[in-house]
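Suppose you are handed only two things: the residues of a chain and a line of SMILES describing flavin mononucleotide. What would the bound structure be? This form records exactly that question and the answer produced for it, so the two can be stored side by side and reused later without any lookup.

QUESTION INPUTS
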Amino acid sequence: MIVLEDSFTDEEKRGFYKAIYSRRDVRSHFISKPIEENKLSKILHAAHHAPSVGFSQPWNFILIKDQATKKKIKESFDEEKRRSSQVVDEPKKSKYLSFKLEGILESPVNLCVTYDPTKFGPFVIGRSSIPEAGLYSVCCAIQNLWLSARTEGVGLGWVSILSNEILKETLQLPEHVVPVAYLCLGYVNEFADKPDLETAKWLPRLDLKDVVYYEKWEDKENSDWKEIQDLIQTNLD
Ligand SMILES: Cc1cc2nc3c(=O)[nH]c(=O)nc-3n(C[C@H](O)[C@H](O)[C@H](O)COP(=O)(O)O)c2cc1C
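ANSWER OUTPUT
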């Protein structure tokens, strides 16, 4: 076995997986304690060290604490939630409407993560065939941010029930800049064990064995991959 000097110790590995498995999308349970700016800065640094197509780093982070801005965004959420509920039939509609799906006003810091396709453009290595790779890069930054926040004990909730037009107007984004995520951050008094939507029996977590295919689409039983099939079956979470 090759042991690299900079490989992770068992304790470090445990910390890494703890962040992954205990990360939650948080919409309630925010407490009023402000987030220290050195912590916020650490979290933003972690986000900024995400991978990006052609090293284009196409993200920007807009920190928001102004209550008037938050109120405008919350109004957009209320309107979009109402609008989206019209495409769901009862009894799901009432259930959907009863869910708490944002913490815009209660969280001390809101953060909009944006995508700027013009950064270092127009030629970015790796983006010519799949233009969406730029957006994927921003999502990598958001995941880093989310895991770093969890590691620092800060809750984070992603709000996508919003009008991008209102977001762009309120935050004065240039026309070519895309808002990718609107996030609510703050200390919380608990991180739930499971996703809220799983607890509410909205959707279950799928079994890993049902989402892993071998060699081609929908092949779940390829005999060249027997060992991992058995491991995935017995080692669900
Ligand atoms: C792109 C994206 C958009 C999301 N939008 C919302 C949202 O508008 N409101 C909300 O309450 N949760 C939102 N979530 C959180 C998901 O509901 C949550 O990640 C999922 O239920 C699994 O729960 P967990 O993150 O706690 O593991 C969003 C998550 C992602 C990745």
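WHAT STANDS OUT: The longest strand covers residues 178-187. The helical segments are 10-22, 37-48, 67-85, 92-98, 133-151, 164-170, 196-199, 226-234.
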